[in-house]
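Late entry, written up from scratch paper. The run itself happened at the end of the previous shift, but nothing got recorded in the book at the time, so transcribing now.
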Amino acid sequence: MKSRIPVLLCLATTLAASVALAQSTVYRWVDKDGKVQFTDTPPPSDAKGVTERRMGGGGTDDQLPFATQIAARRHPVVLYTSEDCGDICAQGRALLGKRGIPFTEKNPQRNPEDAEALKAAIGALEVPVLMVGSNSVKGFGEDSWQSALDQAGYSRTRLPGQAAAQKPAEGK
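Output as recorded:
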């Protein structure tokens, strides 16, 4: 029994190191001599062309159900709302949160670019509008929203322990 303890300790240490490496950040940068460098520590302040890439698990997307990750890549969800949308928009947000769907919320009243995108999508400036990829659903109707999300392949419910959906980016 005593001989197993060092082996188990060694395995636990190796596993912990593997997890740490699997969830690391890799930096790519060009040094003062023009050579491309890859490191796991931030580059010096005089480095040029710095890019940062998160490797492995631990990101927000990795915590989503696989079906939701795929659907979000193929059919991103955008919710058009406004300040005077009130309870209807709140119901839409709640439905997306209940299903654990990541979405971007845009306000065409505050942002002319969002207004132009909404006009191009549905031909008018009315909210709420749910965009699932290129499919638009005007107004809030739970059945129509559920159907659009189902057709895009989004999971019906959040996984146990999965946080409610958060808006990844706020339209300005």
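The beta strands are 25-30, 36-39, 48-54, 77-80, 103-106, 129-132, 135-138, 169-170.
(Scratch paper discarded after transcription.)
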